[in-house]
Design goal:
The structure holds two protein chains of two kinds. Chain A is an alpha+beta fold. Chain A is built from one helix and one strand. The relative contact order of chain A is 0.08. Chain B has ten helices and 19 strands. The chains are: A alpha+beta, B alpha+beta.
Chain lengths: 50, 430
Amino acid sequence: MNLHPKALLRIVAVLAVLAVLPRLVQAVLLRLTGTVVRDVRRQDRPASLR
Amino acid sequence: MSLTEDEQSTTDAPERKAARRRAPGEAPPAGRRPGAERRRRASRRRSTSNEHGNDWSSWPRYDDAELGFRDYWYPVMWAEQVGKKPVPVELLGERIVLVREKDEIFGLHDRCPHRGVPLSLGRRQYEGTISCPYHGWTYELDSGRMCAALTDGPDSPINNKVSVTTYPVEQRLGLVWIYVGDAQGDDVPPVERDIPNELLDNDFVMGGRWDIREGNWRFAAENGFDEGHAKYLHNTALWRLFKVMPAWNMTRIVEEDGWLIRVQDEVHWEAEFPGLGTWTNRRWWKRMPLPDAPGKGKRVNPVIKGLNIPGFVSFRLPGLLRVAYPEFIHFEWYVPVNEDQVRYVQMIVRFETGAKASIFKAKYLSAIRWLFHGQFTGQDAWMVDVMNAPPEKLYRPDLSLTAIRRHIEQVAPTVQVDRTPGSKRQPPAE
């Protein structure tokens, strides 16, 4: 495949924006409205509560 | 990222305006009315009615608990909101400053004993310490001991003779939890005691938010567990646009493992009122909704099915509501800030991972956050803000409210008293 360097640059730029955008949106929402989304892993419980 | 509570409470979404929150700059820093005004407002709500049955005198402990209950862990904000810069928090009427040191977060009484200046305005002069902005009295984060009065030399006679109260702080589920109580050291109960088991024992994805809302925490808690309000107040909510709400229910309250659970014995989708007409929320575009318990839907998440909850809505101390649906659970904590404000922490949980979790995150940020955790719970905030009881006249569905009050009298948790300087009680002994 013969890809022009400018086209390659555009693709890389779009991919970079797509990679950063979700984190950027989350950071802005957290800052402005206290909103978060996240994965939470199973927690260890102390022996006294098992 | 670090965020002060004042920034948080003045930069929030439009639904906050609907709840008649204060305008930016209207209140002093840390989002608090002057003590005298707060106490005057609160005193209006005390049980003063002479007509027995209209006030809260049947539930004296509950009546006294305008600042909440001691000996519990309370969630206050997301862990990433506490940075190196000190963050002030008001909790059960107590001023606390949160400070991060690497991965650990510390909590200290937010008042320098010297001249009463908030330590949250102070500087991080040396590692593991915080210094008062006024004269540089410097406190160790872990012990609260004043290790140096910077403006009085290394041999100052007061060095090591003063300390501020420290608060146990933990990070769980991405939230910062603070313990307010009299237990110390190993006697402090584990934070897991105050977190529902289903949030400890499973992997899940969550979306949530917190904000400071006007109104006493008891109004917020009662509103959450209130049997009747959703069928009328929320039937205009966009979140319910395509789902029918019942016209009225026959409900009873059962207690299981510390939870009060609303169980629906009868669900009525319409009712005929003589002389008025039909009352119903049915519309052609709305689908008939849920079964009569979260575990009985067509598609039920296995974790939720395993909980075997007999009703959708549950409440437990010190102020946590759980609304369980077949595929997700909504939690909301009513954390007392002071007599007139409540910290409202809301969270939707799906017990999913991988691609399904990613889809949920996108749905939460694009819709659920704004419809459910925005407009829908904004309607609740509106009612909590304008509510003015007692006196009150209760009706049949209010058995949900009296169940909370009776439960509190039975469990008899320790009532928090006003500890602000100038009140009847002194601030925590330093």
